[in-house]
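agent> Task received from the user: take the single chain below, predict its 3D structure, and emit structure tokens. No templates, no multimer pairing.
agent> Plan: (1) validate residues, (2) run structure prediction, (3) serialize to tokens, (4) report one or two observations.
agent> Step 1 OK, no nonstandard residues flagged.
tool_call: predict_structure(input=
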Amino acid sequence: MSDVSATIVVDVMGGDDAPDVVLEGVASALMADPDLRVMLVGPAEVVNSFDGVDRCVAVVATEVISMAEHPAGAVRAKKDSSIVVGARLVHEHQAGGFFSAGNTGACMAAATLVVGRLKGVQRPALASIIPGGGRPTVLLDVGANADVKPEMLLQFGHMGAAYARVMLGVESPTVGLLNIGEEPTKGSQLAQDAYRLLEGGLQGFIGNVEGRAVSSGVVDVIVTDGFTGNVTLKVLEGLSKMLLGEVKEALTSSMINKLAGAVVQPSLGALKERLDPEVYGGAPLLGVDGVCMIGHGSSGARGVASGIAATARAVRGDLPSIISAAVSGKVV
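)
tool_result: status=success, residues=332
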């Protein structure tokens, strides 16, 4: 909650269970944050009934981009889709940020093509907050750029550090480069070249980190290419879900185990809460000239509310300006 007003555009049609869970999430976000204003974008029959509701404005979009459509093609063809209209409202400064749990590729394409990149940014990067043993870690890129150059990884480091400052409150973030070993000479030519750039151009860079560091909380930010980052993220999500399922099955397999489960239930509940991706609500596309937060397609109302809250926090923290300064070298 903040006493600084923030206006956020929400794609009502974004997500597997839209619009119902999206509207429920919007209601929760508004209730939790009295200084939040929401622009609901979607079909007239969905959004018009909310026009005039306290701190809500309805914006009609006549088209919807489905999850299965080709991202860039759909953005170019459907100029009046809820995703494109939402991005346009940010570009026109009618809102500070945009949240959607819709087609991830379309959201990234709209943010890049409509909102536009920040000056000096070669490629925007998709970031995700990974729950860690001692502290959360920002992992980027997690899917926007399968192929990168060393200079891009340096920019990812600057953008990730800025995000950690604004969203996690880390004053001096530490940054690691994801690699197959900690030595500077390990990994591909890309990794070795990027190491040299990060070592000489990024304050807080501690060197290479291996895959086990992603969820251990040993650094605040980990940078990698979008292919590796996306695979890493999906493996972590699948492993977390599998382990929690196995623990639940083990604790309900017999009466004795059920009694033992009752004893550890509070601790297991706290663990599940910490690992729940809906706590953070979405992944931001860093490097665009506005805040663009993309939620998981399976987001429930809680995930939507968390995503809207995270978008508002990034807007209030003036994240794009901080990233712009970092990339330009004004903030190291």
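agent> Step 4: summary for the user.
The first helix runs from residue 20 to 32.
agent> Done.
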